[in-house]
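Z., the sequence and structure:
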Amino acid sequence: MTTLEGTLNLPDAMAKEAARMGLLAPDALQSLLRAAIRERRIQRMFAAMDALQEAKLPPLTMDEIQAEVERVREEQRAAGH
């Protein structure tokens, strides 16, 4: 686990309300960060899907898909996974 220390500058009213709600506690901050990370990953995934759709690439054939699966499996075996 990594321990981080820092300063957070908030408007007084927001800091008081966040503290009153327990949002500044380590567990609450961890939960908020986890949710933000998950949301950003989802946004990146949808952006990547949009980019792929805009690229208008032809669909892969079953043989191409199988070759890709075999390539990834071989890479994993070589890496010791």
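Residues 74 and 80 are 10 Å apart (CA to CA). The chain has three helices and no strands.

Let me know what you think.
H.
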